[in-house]
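re: ur question from earlier - yeah i can do the single chain one, its not a big deal. heres the input i used so u can compare w yours
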Amino acid sequence: MRRTRFDWLEGILGVLALILGIATIANPDAMLSTMIRLLAIFAILSAVRDILFYCRTEEYTGLRPMLTLTAGVVGLVAGVMLLCYPNAGKWIVSLLIPIWFISHSIFQLSGLRSLRSITAPWLYALEVGFAAIGFVLGVIMLFHTAWMVAATGLVIGGYLIFTGPEYACSSPLEKAAFKP
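and the output i got, formated as tokens:
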């Protein structure tokens, strides 16, 4: 089978997910704090870019410039807040992670029909199992936020460790499923 960029990208994502999962489980609080700080810096830089775009726009009226300015100000406030109060970021992440788990699992389940005919039954069952586990974990985390805050690092790390090899293994199968 000929390798393509898509295959390499999936393999790299799989290895990266595995490494991040192990690092997150090894030191969950530090990993979460680092992620919050990186998100804060990204939010601030993105907000500055939006505000500069608004300032460079010759036409200050209309919906797009106003939305850009609003997004810039909100992003700047959010970034500064995350830098000053990282615990607030942990609570926000603890609410967004379950939503991500649920949506990612639904996406996985919706794409499995095409893999059923070209893959081994055990691999198909494994894919369904991972998607179901992700969905159930997402629902549990959504309704038990206090538990989620305490276990965020462990849950993220475990999920990354389980999905890392899946990314690397399913890449050739997905490519074969979408061949014309």
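The chain has one domain: 5-177. not sure if urs matches, ping me
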